[in-house]
Design brief:
There is one protein chain. Helix 11 packs across helix 15. Helix content is 42%, strand content 16%. The protein has a five-stranded mixed β-sheet, with helices on both faces. It has a five-stranded mixed β-sheet with strand order 7-6-8-5-9, sandwiched between helices. The protein folds into two domains: 207 residues, Periplasmic binding protein-like II (D-Maltodextrin-Binding Protein, domain 2, 3-Layer(aba) Sandwich); 106 residues, 3-Layer(aba) Sandwich (D-Maltodextrin-Binding Protein, domain 2), CATH 3.40.190.10. Helix 6 links the parallel strand 6 and strand 7. The N terminus is likely disordered. The chain has 344 residues and is an alpha/beta fold. The chain starts with 6 loop residues before the first helix and ends with a helix. It is found in: Periplasm.
Amino acid sequence: MRPTITRRNFTLMAAAAVAAPTLRAQGKLEKSKLAIAVGGKSAFYYLPLTISEQLGYFKSEGLDVEISDFAGGAKALQALMGNSADVVAGAYEHTINMQARNQAIQEFVLMGRAPQIALGVSTKTLPHYKGLADLRGKKIGVSAPGSSTNMVANLVLSRAGIKASDVSYVGVGTGAGALTAIRSGQIDAMCNTDPVMTMLEQKGDVRIISDTRTLKGTQEVFGGPMPAACFYAHTDFIKNNPNTCQALANAIVHGLKWLQTAGPSDIIKTVPESYLLGDRALYLASFNKVREAIGLDGMMPEDGPKTALKALASFEPSVKPDRIDLAKTYTNEFARRAKEKFKA
């Protein structure tokens, strides 16, 4: 006996037929369970990652992600190189640094269009600070040695003729430990992300001397657009897992789209309570300061890679611009598709 096709059944069958090509277009995930390494997840630098995780955007793409939080980006990179992470949420410039060491890693979705890093001097140990020369021989707190906070400090100091070896870098993380380090006088200056830097600035603990938390400040420090937080992975991993990387890019761009219209109360409700560092008002003041630095659509800006290469080469002898193939350090292929999907 032939089954009866009711109007409801016909509608469901027709809907399935229309949806099928879309599902096929994305393809089956090559790897659904993923290990992601990040250095300082509570920082605004990685807010899009937290938003996409908290709102279930990874799950809705069929991904089961385990996010391991390290003290700084250099440690997260180590996890990737040691094969304990599949993907890193980290600073784009690591892709250039690693290519200089003959390691092929590539960015595939951008979360930040400015580094959101500020350098401030302690009002306690350097009350009479006059210029960068005063930092020679001093202790400077960074999230972790070798991380993007360290890179920005190196860049700013190099412009005053101060080498990395002329100061002592101290890893202080991006949370409560960083606040304690400056307030207790353990360090003389701090190069770090928000909300930490805004909290220290508003309480009078530091005097900001260099700032990349805004697009204007970034232009002044770097001379162009400076790509920041992103997802990067081994180039082979991206080549072998295109559908998985597309799903990751989709989740992040979905989060970026949400952030474009999110209000302060939406942010407070979504991030873990511990991220507020005990002060909601200051956390929101920090968010308002860095908001424009958050990416809009996951795409790498055309001049961004050149700006990053120029900055790195100015203080990192191992990075020779003529030996770096920037086209291999990033791809907009996945972000472009995600942008179209979410109309970001």
